[in-house]
């Protein structure tokens, strides 16, 4: 759809505007957040006032899915609208010294919007590769500005990952034998190791300045904020630590929520809130191996690392005053659908590749049924041999394979544990997620013969999808090289211990 058509679309919903400007987009992405972690979804002690307000004033999704139960592949599909198997971001996740990353021939949301004049910025956790000379950094993937950490914050020694006051260590362990975690501005390391207690303040300033500059230039913008919160080990700065009744996890979640509040305040102050679509969700389910320090999947089964509902169904909220009516939608939706939706609303051209996402405009603007017919569930280590583990169609979900994960250990449900080895189900386990969202009661076709046709329809969707899937070369299988780990003093010795430097001006 062309830009002119986009303007026509907006004048329909904003009658007072004769020529509405292109919309701004803010994409908020939490880390390891469970379906039951937000206050607006019923957690009794989570303190999330700004997210709760977005949910109350916006559209809350009950059946929203990511494409992987771990970080890197989930982020790849969010930004490209394509399953991670197509782009090669599998199996598992990328590391500080990974040789691979999100291929440059993949088109991100930022690259879709830039031809229309959008300013683009990202702050937070990238986790889609660094590569030699910064090959895979956000600045090479359509983002004009970047401030953040190129991978997960536990992928380095965490001697500097402290609570408040600074001499109190955070609970938990991080990786050793690699460089300390860097803070990058653009493609330059500005601090190594990063000071986590001051990091959120830097993000707040970055977001405010970016938005204000775009407003001053009368330029539409896209701001992507994939937070480090609430990934383990949790941390929080002085303004959030100790303020939650939920302990360190709650404090971490509160700090994320506070940044959301600061972004909202900036949008209000610059008088552009009514022309900004804010979309919030998370990358995968909670890390249950960390018990109460890892998040909560609510009534859903298992969590991170599994293809059960707790691993891949996420809270999601769309907020746009005057355009999106407050309410709740049960339409099947996914992070895959964000790229085509933003493109439609902006009047941008879609990439000339096979997309797996569908336009959610009917859901957002009309609270209609939506276009997504099915959702396909890949494990953390997808392969052409086993292919899709589960399929959701309508209210039904069929499991062809199940497998537990160390990331979901410690729960009473043995199906979640790493000792629950790969198991094939023929016929597949079948659950009615409307009456049984916890996947407790598999339905039998002997007792419910009408479900035979349901399984046949699901199988037809699965066969068609798998026939269309072309697995890209695995970027993660390319391995790692310690020389690629980011170092603020590249020629120093001995590495990695020498890769440390003070704070430089941003």
Structure notes:
There is one protein chain. The protein contains eleven helices and 15 strands. It is globular and about 70 Å long. It folds into two domains: 291 residues, 3-Layer(aba) Sandwich (Alkaline Phosphatase, subunit A); 84 residues, Arylsulfatase, C-terminal domain (2-Layer Sandwich). Helix 6 packs parallel to helix 7. The strands form two sheets. Strands 1, 2, 3, 4, 5, 6, 7, 8, 9, 10 and 11 form an eleven-stranded mixed β-sheet that branches. A four-stranded antiparallel β-sheet has the order 12-13-14-15, with helices on one face. It is an alpha/beta fold. The N terminus is likely disordered.
Fold blueprint:
Elements: H1 3-13, E1 24-30, H2 49-57, E2 59-65, H3 71-80, H4 84-87, H5 109-113, E3 119-125, E4 145-149, E5 183-185, E6 188-191, H6 196-216, E7 221-226, H7 247-269, E8 276-282, H8 309-312, E9 313-319, E10 327-329, E11 333-334, H9 338-346, H10 361-366, E12 374-377, E13 390-393, E14 396-402, E15 423-432, H11 451-468
Parallel strand pairs: 1-7, 1-8, 2-10, 2-11, 3-4, 3-7
Antiparallel strand pairs: 2-9, 4-5, 5-6, 8-9, 12-13, 13-14, 14-15
Helix pairs in contact: 6-7
How many strand units?
A: 15
Described by the principal axes of the CA atoms, the overall outline is globular
The percent range for strand residues is 15-25%
Query: How much helix is in the residues?
Result: 10-25%
CATH class category name of the largest domain: Alpha Beta
- Write down the secondary-structure element order: HEHEHHHEEEEHEHEHEEEHHEEEEH
State the end-to-end CA separation: 39 Å
Mean pLDDT: 92
Give unreliable regions as ranges: 1-18
Give the C-alpha Rg.
Answer: 22 Å
CATH topology of the largest domain: Alkaline Phosphatase, subunit A
The CATH superfamily of the largest domain is known as Alkaline Phosphatase, subunit A
Tell me the structural class: alpha/beta
- CATH architectural grouping of the largest domain: 3-Layer(aba) Sandwich
């Amino acid at each position: 759809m062309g830009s002119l058509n986009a303007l026509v679309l907006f004048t329909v919903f904003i009658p007072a505007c004769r020529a509405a400007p292109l919309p701004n987009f803010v994409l908020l992405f939490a880390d390891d957040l469970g379906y039951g972690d937000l206050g607006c979804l019923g957690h009794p002690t989570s303190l999330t006032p700004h997210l709760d307000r977005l949910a109350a004033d916006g559209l809350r999704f009950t059946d929203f899915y990511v494409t992987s139960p771990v970080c890197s592949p989930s982020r790849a599909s969010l930004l490209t609208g394509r399953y991670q198997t197509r782009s090669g971001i599998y199996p598992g996740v990328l590391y500080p010294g990974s040789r691979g990353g999100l291929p440059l021939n993949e088109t991100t949301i930022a690259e879709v919007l830039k031809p229309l004049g959008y300013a683009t910025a990202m702050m937070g956790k990238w986790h889609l590769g660094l590569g030699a000379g910064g090959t895979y950094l956000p600045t090479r993937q359509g983002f004009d500005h970047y401030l953040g950490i190129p991978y997960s914050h536990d992928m380095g020694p965490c001697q500097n990952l402290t609570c408040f006051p600074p001499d109190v260590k955070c609970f938990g362990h991080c990786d050793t034998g690699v460089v300390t975690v860097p803070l990058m501005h653009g493609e330059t390391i500005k601090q190594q190791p990063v000071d986590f207690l001051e990091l959120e303040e830097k993000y707040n300033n970055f977001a405010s300045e970016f938005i204000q500059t775009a407003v001053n230039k009368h330029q539409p913008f896209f701001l992507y904020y994939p937070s480090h919160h609430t990934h383990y080990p949790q941390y929080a700065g002085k303004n959030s630590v100790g303020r939650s009744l939920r302990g360190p996890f709650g404090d971490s979640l509160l700090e994320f929520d506070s940044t959301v509040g600061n972004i909202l305040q900036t949008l209000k102050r610059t008088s552009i809130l009514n022309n900004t679509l804010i979309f919030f969700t998370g990358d995968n389910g909670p890390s249950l191996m960390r018990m109460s320090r890892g998040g909560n999947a609510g009534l859903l089964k298992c969590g991170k690392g599994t293809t059960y509902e707790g691993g891949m169904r996420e809270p999601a909220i769309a907020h746009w005053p005057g355009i999106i009516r407050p309410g709740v939608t049960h339409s099947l939706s996914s992070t895959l659908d964000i790229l085509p939706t933003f493109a439609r609303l902006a009047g941008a051209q879609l990439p000339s590749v096979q997309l797996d996402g569908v336009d959610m405009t009917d859901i957002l603007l009309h609270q209609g049924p939506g276009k997504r017919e099915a959702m396909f569930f890949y494990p953390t280590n997808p392969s052409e041999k086993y292919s899709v583990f589960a399929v959701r169609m309508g209210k039904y979900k069929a499991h062809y394979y199940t497998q537990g994960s160390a990331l979901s250990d410690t729960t009473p449900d043995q199906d979640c544990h790493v000792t629950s080895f790969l198991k094939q189900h023929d016929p597949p386990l079948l659950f009615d997620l409307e009456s049984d969202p916890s996947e407790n009661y598999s339905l039998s076709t002997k007792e419910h013969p009408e479900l035979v046709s349901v399984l046949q329809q699901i199988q037809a969707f699965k066969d068609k999808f798998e026939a269309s899937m072309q697995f890209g070369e695995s970027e993660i299988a390319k391995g790692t090289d310690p020389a690629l780990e980011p170092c603020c003093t590249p020629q120093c010795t001995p590495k990695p211990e020498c890769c440390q430097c003070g704070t430089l001006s941003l």
